[in-house]
Amino acid sequence: MGVAVSVVLPFFNAEKTLQAAADSILNQSFANFELLLVNNNSSDNSLKVATQLVAKDLRVRLINEPKQGVANAMNCGLENAQGDFIARMDADDISLPMRLEKQLQYLQNNQETGVVGCHVKYVAHNKNTKGFERFVARVNSFYTPEAISLSRFVEIPLINPTIFFRKELFTKYGGNRDGDFPEDYEMQLRFLAAGVKMAKIPEPLLEWHDSATRLTRTDERYSTEAFFKIKAKYFYKWAEKNNPFHPNIWVWGAGRKTRQRAKLLENEGVKITGYIDVVKNKTTQKQTIHFNDIPNKGSIFIVSMVTSYGADEEIKAFLLAKKYIEGADFILMG
After folding, report:
1. Which end of the chain is more exposed for a tag (fewer CB within 10 A), N or C?
2. Residue 248 sits in the same domain as residue 191
3. CB of 74 within 8 A of CB of 175?
4. pLDDT tens-place string over residues 62-87
């Protein structure tokens, strides 16, 4: 019998955490897997750690990817994977013992689903983590395929090191793309745009370890503006199918920063009819109405782009009370 699951674990200078991350996979309740350690030009002792892991367990394979970048390392692992299912893992995180078993079982029991993630337990290693804590709480708050589909433009649907998917998706739609955007978010948006159903197991099966050097904190490709840029690209494709007034929209939020981000939508071909805000006529660039003056459902499509904490849920509640339907009359892009 061949291997069922290929766990792809790229690493770069991870000597302090790689052993624990790999051990958390090797100690899984489900044993029919291979662990692909993809070395991405490490210059510390992490390559030595990886070599020792290979020597101790036949399920571990070491691969070298000379082209720098996590997207290239991930694709190298995907191309060498022998399993029918792929599990992603980071070199500084910990998978809980039942993770692979429960994710594999979910996809086997839900043949219409292509990707499954899980909730994460957030582990902070430094101060000033309130933003990340809110982010984790938000991503952990939705898990059904329907909620994931509707939340795709708010946050990344699945925290990347939790993803577990059918290898055939890589064959059909490709893996990570390298560019000036978050490669994990782009791949998930691409899969969703292709009609791939995603779900999440609503229990923490991974410890997501934060640090000051994590790429999500240090790399421009993971900046808020980079996220909005890739959101704009995939929003246009989504809106073609779901906005009855395409390409015309109303943007909720008329502040300077929101208008700058809305410009990204216009660059993709979306037409902004006007803005909705707490202040009428907040900008003279386009018609700006007070939110209490929005028309009845069925006459406009609204994209909420307000990013202040908690505002998106307040806006959603207001629109639902007005009988607007999420995904048909409005979408959140906070």
Report:
1. N
2. no
3. yes
4. 999 999 999 999 999 999 999 999 99
